[in-house]
Amino acid sequence: MALKVKLMPENKVVEMDEKKARVETIVRRLGLPLEMVVVLKNGNIATSDELVSEEDELVVMRAVSGG
Amino acid sequence: MARCSICGRPAIAELRYARLRLCREHFLEFFTRKVESTISKHGLLKPGEKVLLAVSGGKDSVSLAHVFSQMAGRLGVRPFLFHIDLGLGDYSEEQRRAVEELSRRTGLPLIVVSVRDILRGDGIPQLARKARRPECSVCGMVKRYLTNLAALVLGAEKVAMGHNLDDTLAYLLKNKLMGLEEYSSKLGPSSPSVPGLLAARIRPLVEVYERETLLYALASGAPFTHDECPFRPRESLEDINKEYVNRLEEKSPGTKLRLLKTLLKDSPPLRGNGEKLGKCRVCGMPASGDECSFCRLTRRVYGEPLGPRAREVVEASVRRALEGLGAGAGV
Questions:
Q1: Nearest to A61 among B13, B60, B214 (CB)
Q2: Which helix (H) or strand (E) segment is A41 a member of?
Q3: Is A67 among the domain residues?
Q4: What ipTM was assigned to the predicted interfaces of this complex?
Q5: Closest partner residue to A66 among B13, B58, B242, by Cβ?
Q6: What is this structure's pTM?
Q7: Do A38 and B210 touch (CB under 8 A)?
Q8: Number of structural domains found in chain A
Q9: Is B89 helix (H, G, I), strand (E, B) or coil?
Q10: A45 touches chain B (CB under 8 A)
Q11: pLDDT tens digits for B66-96?
Q12: B211 contacts A37? CB cut-off 8 A
């Protein structure tokens, strides 16, 4: 098992090699500026220093404009 | 785990440009104060004014509406939600549901206009196809027309838009890159009214980071849709500009706010400032020639200008919203 990240609004799941990582590392690995995302860990807004493990449900929301 | 700079509870927001980490409660307060400060600094609203909030159902406009429901009493203004159902299938339906729920939760009256009621059953994609024009340009024109019409029918002094700092910078940079700076003054905190023709536009979120509106929408629990419009172009110049300014922001927090000041200072005032604006001979709305772009386009597509039909539909929607307020509202 490895870390799974759901990317929104694309609704795409990305798998990572690590079993544990900080939010900041995960977002950088996705190639996104931290300034452009909000991360939810188990449904709660997480700060960049939070540690995430493979049991956690992680959602990376890009701050995009709808219209 | 990061802690709130004010109370020490777990933080949800890291605002490097302000050197703050904030818990949910203090972030919501910070956001509201920031918007109020933009409004007072630029004199965007006066007590007693009616303000039409253009609400798509996305995070920015929903945050704008939610924050207005919090501060309308203090500012002494009367906010109304205004939503246009663009007829874009599931996307529009979801947006509409979010806005209706927002109206229920905030208690703000809602005016909804469906383009299909005006365009003989067509939504924006059908109109664009028949007109052989890109969806986004037709959509922008129809939205501007209907929003202004609703403001005039309601007698609202101001239309408030949800454009955030990142959106604004993306457009300002685009204008700069394409040598179109003369259009940039329209992107600042306010654009003036032309009495009887054009309601003044205000942008109270112009200093709010895009990430902050998403955080606010999530933290306040306000209902919003996080989908992208199905017609949104991929990798537009605006998208590239947004990513660029956010990379700069990461290197040097506060860059975005500084850039906003610089770019707005650089933009020359719009030539003529709307004085040359004429009146459409069909519908009486603003026009650069003798017919407005809405009447011109609908005449070409349907054989008849639909400005008067739009007015009937908007008037009926405004009436419904006012009836919902009850007779004692004195609007």
A1: B214
A2: strand A37-41
A3: no
A4: 0.94
A5: B58
A6: 0.94
A7: no
A8: 1
A9: coil
A10: yes
A11: 999 999 999 999 999 999 999 999 999 999 9
A12: yes
